[in-house]
Specification:
Structural class: alpha+beta
Shape: globular
Strand content: 25-35%
Number of domains: 3
Order of helices and strands: EEHHEEEEEEHEHEEEEEHHHEEHH
Helix content: 10-25%
CATH class of the largest domain: Alpha Beta
CATH architecture of the largest domain: 2-Layer Sandwich
Radius of gyration: 21 Å
Number of strands: 16
Largest sheet: 10 strands, mixed
CATH topology of the largest domain: Pseudouridine synthase
Length: 344
């Protein structure tokens, strides 16, 4: 069986137990402490290429290497999970994915995914996908990202859509709320993105990574925050989240690239408790929504321009910003703002 390999460099100044550090990383692949311990006991986790005990104390620059077996072929069962289908024909469908839904099964997440939901909704009317665990899946969205995702219903549609993504013929526009205001208000972000060596859950800007390019425009700003639309030229993992964090305006609610302490540092003392309530009870994920898809239908050649309405938590956050951090008291309603911003 093929093995998945992960490399981690410990960059902390203090010593820490190997098993505790790996648990703190909260990697999806290392889904429990008992699983971590079993991997260590089987010599699947090495430090500086040497087998060690779970109590081994890591020192700065220690290199941890993990050899994980590929996830098993899951028994893919249809599950009656609500789906919002915003477009459908005999060849493909476009889903408005809810935040919190994982696209396909993986380590620690064998069910409850978008794949399980579309198997129930479309049954055998799905492409075979790139592998047995991903029928109908052409591209993906992060678990915490809401919005539009394309599903292939035939193998021909799957093949053509794959080619279109590779040729950048499917245009994706996102809406995001940033902690901080982008400077300048409008522009492009170009960088190379690769996996972080200190935390494999994270991506980072690195010269060894893959080239990425996004265009953005601030469509409304508040004290300390901004509503931004982002058009992707490339589709790297965590691209928008990494690029805006690199520009020091990380996405609100993104606990992987932002922290509550960073959000608190932006605002007056009397607003910090309100921000904590927002992030603990209302916006419990990154404020990122796949808003628009523009592409020519791969089979019918019809020009499609599809929008996804904003989910409740995103709208709640915008209204919260208007209430506490508004700059323009005569601001336009959001439906008018979004209508005006359909043109780039």
């Amino acid at each position: 069986m093929n093995q998945q390999k992960i490399r981690i460099v410990y960059e902390g100044d203090d010593t820490i137990r190997l098993d505790k550090h790996l648990a703190n990383l909260r990697l999806q692949e290392l889904h429990s402490r008992s699983f971590i311990e079993s991997l260590i006991s089987e010599d699947r986790i090495l430090v500086n290429n040497i087998p060690v005990k779970k109590s081994y104390l890591l020192a700065k620059n220690d290199e941890i290497s993990l050899k994980l077996p590929e996830p098993p072929d899951y028994d893919m069962k249809p599950e009656d999970i609500p789906l919002e289908v915003v477009y459908e024909d005999e060849h493909l469908a476009v889903i408005n994915k809810a935040a919190g839904m994982i696209v396909h099964p993986g380590h620690g997440n064998p069910d409850g995914t978008l794949v399980n939901a579309i198997l129930y909704r479309f049954g055998s009317n799905l492409s075979s996908g790139r592998d047995a665990n991903r029928p109908g899946i052409v591209h993906r969205l992060d678990r915490g990202t809401s919005g539009l995702i394309i599903i292939a219903k035939t193998d021909r549609a799957q093949t053509e859509l794959n080619h279109m993504f590779a040729r950048r013929q499917i245009h994706k526009t996102y809406l995001a709320i940033t902690s901080g205001i982008p400077d300048p208000f409008e522009g492009s972000i170009e960088c190379h993105i690769g996996r972080s060596l200190s935390n494999p859950r994270q991506m980072c800007v690195t010269t060894a990574g893959k080239w990425s390019l996004s265009h953005y425009k601030t469509i409304k700003y508040y004290h300390y925050f901004a509503l931004v639309k982002v058009k992707l030229e490339t589709g790297r993992m965590h691209q928008i989240r990494v690029q805006f964090a690199h520009r020091h305006v990380p996405l609100l609610g993104d606990l992987l690239y932002n922290t509550r302490r960073q959000v608190h540092s932006l605002m007056p003392q009397n607003m910090k408790r309100k921000a904590t309530d927002l992030l603990a009870n209302h916006l419990m994920r990154q404020a990122l929504h796949s808003w628009r898809l523009e592409f020519v239908h791969p089979i019918t050649e019809e020009k499609l321009d599809i929008f996804a309405p904003l989910p409740e938590d995103f709208l709640y956050t915008l209204n919260w910003l208007d209430k506490y951090f508004s700059i323009d008291t005569d601001s336009k309603p959001y439906n008018m703002i979004f209508e005006e911003n359909k043109q780039w």
